[in-house]
C-alpha cells in the first residue's frame, strides 16, 4: 500500500468533494442492496434504481475526467494519465454490467431474484473496492502532477468547466451525496459559493433539502455560518 502524501501547503483539490460524494453513494448503495428484502417489490425497485443511478453517475464522472482533467495533465506531463485513464474503460464496463444485472433482478422473482441480488451485492462490493483504490491514486498521483503545474485559480477553472457541463440530474446527484458527506467547514465553504453565485431560489431550495440529510448539529452549524433563516419558497 502506498503511503499517504504529507501536504505541506493547502492546495485546491477538485477531487475532494466529488469523491466524497461518490464514496458515500457507493457505501449507501452497497449496504442497501446487502440488506434488501427481495420479496418486497417497492423496496427492491427503489434499491435497484439506486444501483442504476450510481452507475450512470459514475460513468458521467469518468467522462468528465476524460474530457477536462486528463487533457490538462497530458498538456504538462505527457503520459501522466496512463494509470488512471487505463482503468476508466474497465470501470465503465463494470457500471454497465451492474446496471444490466440490476435490471434483470428487478424482472426476476422468488429465489431467482434473491440469487441475482446476492450476486449484485458481491459485484458491487468488488466495484467499490476497485473504485476506492482508483480515487486514491487520483487524489495523490494525479494531484501531484496538477499541483506542480497549475495555480489554484487554474484548477478552479478546470473544476468550473466541469460544473458548467453537468446535466440537471448530475447536479442534483452531486448535491444530494456531496453536501452531507463534507466536514462542516467544507460544507459551509461550498454553500457560501452557492449563495454568492446561484439564484436565491436555488440556494434556498438546496438549503431546505439539506434538512433531510443533516443532523441537528450539522444543520445548526451551517445555518449559523451562513446567517440563514428558513423562508417559504415562492410557488
Q: What is the straight-line distance between the termini?
A: 53 Å
Shape: globular
**Proportion of helical residues:** over 70%
Number of strands: 0
The tally of helices reads 9
Strand content: under 5%
Average of the residue pLDDT scores: 93
Structural class of the helix and strand makeup? mainly alpha
In terms of quaternary structure, the protein is single chain
| Biggest sheet details | none
- Cα gyration radius (Å): 19 Å
Order of helices and strands: HHHHHHHHH
Low-confidence stretches: none
Notes on the protein architecture:
With 235 residues, this protein is mainly alpha-helical. It is 78% helix and 0% strand. The chain has helices at residues 14-34, 41-76, 82-107, 110-149, 152-164, 168-178, 184-197, 200-210, 216-226. The protein is globular and about 55 Å long.
In short:
The protein has helices spanning 14-34, 41-76, 82-107, 110-149, 152-164, 168-178, 184-197, 200-210, 216-226. With 235 residues, it is mostly helical.
Which features does this protein show?
235 residues; 9 helices; 78% helix
Layout of strands and helices, then pairs:
Elements: H1 14-34, H2 41-76, H3 82-107, H4 110-149, H5 152-164, H6 168-178, H7 184-197, H8 200-210, H9 216-226
Helix pairs in contact: 1-2, 1-4, 1-6, 2-3, 2-5, 3-4, 7-9
Amino acid at each position: 500500500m502506498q503511503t499517504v502524501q504529507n501536504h505541506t501547503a493547502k492546495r485546491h483539490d477538485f477531487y475532494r468533494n466529488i469523491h466524497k460524494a461518490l464514496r458515500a453513494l457507493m457505501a449507501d448503495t452497497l449496504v442497501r442492496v446487502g440488506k434488501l428484502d427481495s420479496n418486497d417489490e417497492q423496496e427492491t425497485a427503489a434499491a435497484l434504481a439506486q444501483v442504476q443511478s450510481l452507475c450512470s453517475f459514475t460513468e458521467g464522472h469518468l467522462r468528465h475526467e476524460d474530457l477536462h482533467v486528463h487533457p490538462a495533465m497530458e498538456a504538462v506531463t505527457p503520459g501522466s494519465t496512463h494509470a488512471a485513464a487505463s482503468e476508466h474503460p474497465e470501470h465503465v464496463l463494470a457500471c454497465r454490467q451492474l446496471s444490466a444485472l440490476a435490471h434483470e433482478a428487478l424482472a426476476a422473482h422468488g429465489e431467482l431474484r434473491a440469487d441475482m441480488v446476492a450476486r449484485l451485492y458481491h459485484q458491487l462490493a468488488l466495484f467499490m473496492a476497485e473504485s476506492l483504490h482508483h480515487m486514491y491514486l487520483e487524489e495523490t498521483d494525479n494531484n501531484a502532477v496538477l499541483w506542480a503545474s497549475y495555480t489554484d485559480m487554474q484548477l478552479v477553472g478546470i473544476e468550473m468547466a466541469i460544473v458548467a457541463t453537468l446535466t440537471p440530474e448530475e447536479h442534483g446527484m452531486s448535491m444530494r451525496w456531496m453536501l452531507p458527506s463534507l466536514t462542516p467547514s467544507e460544507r459551509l465553504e461550498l454553500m457560501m459559493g452557492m449563495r454568492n453565485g446561484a439564484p436565491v431560489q436555488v440556494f434556498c431550495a438546496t438549503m431546505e433539502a439539506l434538512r433531510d440529510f443533516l443532523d441537528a448539529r450539522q444543520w445548526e452549524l451551517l445555518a449559523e455560518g451562513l446567517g440563514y433563516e428558513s423562508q417559504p419558497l415562492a410557488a
